[in-house]
Amino acid sequence: MTTWILNGLTLNPETGETEKKHLRIENGAVAEWADGASAPDTAGTETIDASGKLVSAGLIDMHVHLREPGFEHKETIATGTQSAAKGGFTTIACMPNTRPVIDTPDTVKLVLDKAATEGAVRVLPYAAITKNELGRELTDFAALKEAGAIGFTDDGVGVQNAQMMKNAMTLAKSLGMPVIAHCEDDSLVEGASVSEGAFARKHGLKGIPNESEAIHVGRDILLSEATGVHYHVCHVSTEQSIRLIRLGKSIGVNVTSEVCPHHLLLADEDIPDTMDANWKMNPPLRTPRDVEACIRALEEGTIDIIVTDHAPHSEEEKARGMDRAPFGIVGFETAFPLLYTKFVKTGRWTLDFLLRRMTSDPARVFNLPTGKLTPGAPADIVLIDLEQEREVNPETFLTKGRNTPFAGWKLYGWPALTMVGGKVVWTEENGIN
Ligand SMILES: NC(=O)N[C@@H](CC(=O)O)C(=O)O
Ligand SMILES: [Zn+2]
Ligand SMILES: [Zn+2]
Q1: pLDDT tens sequence across 86-101
Q2: Among 50, 121, 205, 402, which residue's Cβ finds the most Cβ atoms within 10 Å?
Q3: How do the domains of the chain map onto residue ranges?
Q4: Does 97 sit in the ligand 1 pocket, CB within 6 Å?
């Protein structure tokens, strides 16, 4: 089957300018970029008009929470992947902190089966490092890999014991698998819900110190050096962690890292005095100095990729107040417009820079066959409207979560159509296909 995406704008990375091209798709794969100056012969083919829209490889999000099994009131694989499609994502990697935890081959298979039948986009499951994410006993890495897990992580909590982490890394290395770490030392955090900083001081709250993250980053870089494993740091949020990752990379340690839009855009002092728990996430919003450090680290390559850490919770859970509400905010449906508006439209980044951090770089870091629209690649594509300004309205989200601090923000760069493997899965006009 042939599909033509006609008259779209594609980015020429050499000039940084967009140019009009037609894209031919054959049997779910990219076949040809044709000159936009003349009309191709489209007799007998399906056509999609992309006039005025950017044509990009589908976005890749290597850190998301789909909540199924066990927390279907927050999200399901169906709603989470639909939300991802609406946000322009075509591949997402989901975290194992479900109930039960994804720590057996059967739970990995359950996620893969559900994703295949009910999912709107590609889903790559991570499996837990330790059984039930309790930090006591390693899971069966070989069997989990065999079942389809793409890496190991106890996201949601840090692995507190260094020997446990070293054993995990040694085993993962022997299987050629990465270890992905939520970096948090529990002994330094105990009961705090916001960062140590201006907001905590103003409200007399106990704060989460920056070193609670960086201590694990430093420890794990040493363990990665010792074991040779590919070690990937989750949701980097502090200047201290960045310093350590920079050092690790400079001496050749196999370390990579990710950052979330909120840690590039918001600081603790932006949290409203109403203590709205839609501003509560882990790691917490840090100081403006940390925000600038995260931006620079991404710019210099110390941080490799952008992820959302999409973490839906119900309105009832988020209404429990800053102290008692769970950590986490949704991310799929605001990520690209936020970053495009605040970093590309303002002139700090090129469009090419932003797109790479959300497409080809995650594919490179995790060895995925997607992320580039070169002939032969899967036709995972997003069309993006860069011109129209719209307001973030959580009531229109496809995720079950409404927990975002970005409601009301006026943004550009909204996805208009998402295609996975040559099949249109979502359009602005008609919703989920
Ligand atoms: N990021 C969050 O604030 N919450 C995540 C857990 C996590 O990513 O650590 C969640 O599962 O809700
Ligand atoms: Zn985490
Ligand atoms: Zn997470």
Answers
A1: 999 999 999 999 999 9
A2: 121
A3: 2-55+377-432, 58-365
A4: yes
Closest Cα to atom 9 of ligand 1: 156
Task: Report d(CA 152, CA 199) in Å as an integer.
Answer: 34
Size of the chain, expressed as the number of residues it contains: 433
How would DSSP label each residue in 73-90? TT--HHHHHHHHHHTTEE
Query: What's the CATH architecture for 58-365?
Result: Alpha-Beta Barrel (3.20)
Report how far apart, in Å, the C-alpha atoms of 178 and of each of 169, 181, 228, 261, 369 are.
8, 10, 10, 23, 17
Interface predicted TM-score (ipTM): 0.99
237 lines ligand 1 (CB under 6 A): no
State whether residue 409 is helix, strand or coil. Answer: coil
Alpha carbon dihedral 306, 112, 232, 234, in 10-degree steps, equals: 60
User: Which burial class, exposed, middle or buried, applies to 300 when counting CB atoms under 10 A from its CB (0-12, 13-18, 19+)?
Assistant: exposed
Determine contact, residues 175/149, Cβ cutoff 8 Å. no
Question: In this structure, which residues have their CB less than 5 angstroms from ion ligand 2?
Answer: 155, 182, 234
Structural class in CATH, domain 2-55+377-432: mainly beta
Known binding-site residue numbers for Zn(2+): 63, 65, 155, 182, 235, 309
> Could you give the angle at the alpha carbon of 79 between the alpha carbons of 75 and 80, nearest 5°?
70
- pTM, two decimals, is 0.98
- DSSP code per residue over 181-239: E----GGGTTT--EETTHHHHHTT--EE-THHHHHHHHHHHHHHHHH---EEE-S---H
